[in-house]
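Colleagues,

For the teaching module next term, I've prepared a clean inverse folding example: a structure given as tokens, and then the sequence designed for it. I'd like students to try predicting residues themselves before seeing the answer, so please don't circulate the second half yet.
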């Protein structure tokens, strides 16, 4: 018998080494090297399914549009680029308990009405547990077939004989391929299972949803290797304390990325929200200082979001700066601009910034909102409640133009806003104002004058 060799593989990036190392030389992560056994069997290439055809001219490839099925959930269709494509593999990642299984059983129920059987493979929950959840969601269907299984070969064999319209694999981290000696959830297993499922989906034309867990750092565990293999990567995110959930496209071979779908987690499951801006603004206090509304873009979708600042004198020696939902460093930078350029006295002040609803905004277009909210709280002057802001701020206090301004103010007009504070260059380029009064600002002084004086 040949000696079984072992090697060490980084669980974060897949780097392998014959020796154990404390720090992965490739990705720099500490303590991620795990011992794995080399397998006697040969692992499959991710794209083996395509190897059948030889070289051919592009023009001779019969094309046409890909076939899409609606999932029956508009927000999910949106992030998928208009529905599920035949034979595509969709990875849904997210924190534990965020609602991945709930979303997919709901989508499964709708899909089973049109697409035939839905095979729901669960390596995490027993059929009884899934039944309990389905009862809460009032789902009961002969067409949803539950399979408690973690062995990949058995799953593929069942799918091949049952011929379902859609397969859902609840958590790739619980699946294992027999020829690999390593434990389920290790990089080797996750990659191998995903590659095999991908190849099966391509051959059979069955769309496949794969649920993946997210590590503490926020990446899908077992990790980037997986993102390369699948066609579409969706992240399900949201704040535990809030009921809003966002489904974000990170990668999509069949549509645009940067789309988001917004859901609310209710006691009857996930509810798609078509008008998120209205919902985010529904509890907004009127005429209080430190609160403002910013127009942010999530992909092609404008979102109006309330942003709050609280500025109060420091009671300890060091002023505290806290930021929830916007980048902390960005806030510090804007505070520095307010101090140095606009001359506001923030040195002895604690500053707290919060984006309402547990939403995270990554766009610099919310800079004006952050600056105005801080100044409003410091001066205790409320910002006009029907005003929306967007624009980026530079280090010398200059206001810079942002993209897609028309979409932003159209949304604001739709919800009943009356004024928009915009960068000067954006105003100049604007073709339509949608009935809003447009106030142009060129620098931080203009902004303070327009918003909080
Ligand atoms: P789940 O889909 O099991 O999460 P995941 O598969 O991502 O780990 O969702 C679990 C959470 O959702 C749980 O905390 C309870 C909540 N929930 C509701 O609030 N309403 C519902 O109708 C359902 C089914 C779950
Ligand atoms: Mg689950």
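(Answer key — instructors only)
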């Amino acid at each position: 018998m040949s000696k079984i060799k072992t090697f060490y593989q980084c669980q974060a990036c897949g780097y392998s080494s014959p020796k154990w190392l404390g720090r992965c030389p490739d990705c720099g992560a500490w303590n991620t090297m795990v011992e794995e056994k080399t397998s006697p069997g040969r692992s499959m290439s991710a794209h083996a399914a395509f190897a059948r055809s030889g070289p051919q001219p592009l023009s001779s490839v019969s094309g046409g549009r890909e076939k899409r099925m609606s999932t029956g959930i508009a927000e999910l269709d949106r992030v998928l680029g208009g529905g599920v494509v035949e034979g595509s593999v969709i990875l849904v990642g997210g924190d534990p308990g965020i609602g991945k299984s709930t979303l997919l059983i709901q989508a499964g129920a709708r899909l089973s009405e049109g697409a035939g059987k839905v095979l729901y493979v669960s390596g995490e929950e027993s059929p009884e547990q899934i039944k309990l959840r389905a009862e809460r969601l009032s789902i009961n269907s002969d067409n949803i077939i539950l399979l408690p299984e973690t062995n990949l070969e058995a799953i593929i064999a069942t799918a091949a004989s049952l011929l379902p319209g859609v397969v859902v694999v609840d958590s790739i981290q619980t699946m294992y391929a027999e020829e690999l000696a390593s434990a389920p959830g290790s990089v080797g297993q996750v990659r191998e299972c995903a590659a095999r499922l991908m190849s099966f989906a391509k051959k059979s034309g069955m769309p496949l949803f794969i649920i993946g867990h997210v590590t503490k750092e926020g990446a899908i565990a077992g990790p980037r290797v997986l993102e390369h293999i699948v066609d579409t990567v969706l992240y399900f995110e949201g704040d535990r304390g809030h009921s809003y959930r966002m489904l974000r496209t990170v990668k999509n071979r069949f549509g645009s990325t940067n789309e988001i779908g917004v859901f609310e987690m209710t006691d009857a499951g996930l509810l798609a929200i078509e008008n998120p801006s209205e919902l985010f603004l529904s509890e907004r206090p009127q005429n209080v200082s430190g609160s403002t509304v910013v127009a942010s873009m999530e992909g092609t979708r404008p979102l109006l979001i309330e942003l709050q600042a609280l500025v109060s004198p420091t009671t300890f020696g060091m002023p505290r700066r806290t930021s929830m939902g916007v980048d902390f460093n960005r806030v510090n930078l804007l505070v520095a601009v307010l101090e140095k350029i606009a001359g506001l006295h923030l040195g002895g002040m604690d500053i707290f910034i919060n984006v309402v609803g547990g939403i995270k905004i990554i766009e610099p277009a919310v800079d004006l909102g952050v600056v105005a909210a801080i100044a409003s709280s410091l001066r205790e002057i409320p910002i006009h409640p029907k005003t929306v802001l967007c624009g980026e701020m530079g280090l010398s206090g200059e206001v810079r133009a942002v993209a897609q301004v028309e979409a932003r103010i159209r949304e604001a007009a739709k919800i009943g806003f009356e004024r928009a504070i915009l960068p000067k260059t954006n105003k100049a380029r604007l073709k339509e104002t949608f009935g809003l009064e447009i106030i142009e600002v060129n620098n931080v002084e203009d902004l303070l004058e327009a918003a909080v004086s």
